[in-house]
Amino acid sequence: DQLLKKTCFAAGIDRRFFSGYFGKLSRANAIQIGTIHKLKNPLSLEELRGNKTPPQSYLYLSDEEAQKVKANTVVEKRNFSIFVGGVHGVGKTTFLNKTLGYCGFTCFSASDLIKRHKLEIRKDKVVSDITGNQSGLIIESIKESSKHRLYALDGHFTLLSKGGEVQPISREVFSELKLDCLMLILASCEEIQSRISSRDGIKWSKSLIRSFIRAEECQAEAIAKNLQIPLLKIENSDPYVWKKTKQFLQKVLLDKFTCS
User: Fold this and answer.
1) Residue 218's pLDDT is what?
2) Residue 243 burial by CB count (10 A; 0-12/13-18/19+): exposed, middle or buried?
3) Distance of alpha carbon 154 from alpha carbon 216, whole angstroms
């Protein structure tokens, strides 16, 4: 069951086929595809092996044949990056751990990457240097996304400025992050208010939370439209959150790698 959940969004195998293949076995193994070597130009069997007949199952290449193939390839990076946004206290970390993390994504928090870049975020969630922080985020995020095949970044589409105003993060920041898709996690004002109060000791008014949620959603939609990348909006209390996330990822992955 664990293996199915980790692979079903990208392996092209549904539960029925998976269950039929493994039957009642308690253990199953999967092989993750490693480096992809893409042919620069088509290479026919006749050129490679001197015949046109394909094998009945498979054949191993000789060292000479393997070198011939490798000389005609270029290494293709197939990294996949997701940005998961939402206001403070909406439950992004829980979503990442239970959903994307379980699928094999390596998850990072934008605030952690910014802190790594030695820029300070105040404990009351007010950001004093939004521009500088986002520059640091871009630098650190690009480092991490290049290391991981499946990369997820938890952050915000808007931030609360030092003056108490909700400010959108610019389109250029998200463009520089080189994202494949966006996700926006939503929750009720009451849930966010309670979580922020118990977790951080901060008392936010419902009016502030509502304006924060509206701004976050508007900016997420604007970024998705401007950069022409898919956006999934989902309630953290939705009982079908896993199913909807899986279907979304399957479509985005299929479109990305079919087109490329």
Assistant:
1) 96
2) exposed
3) 14
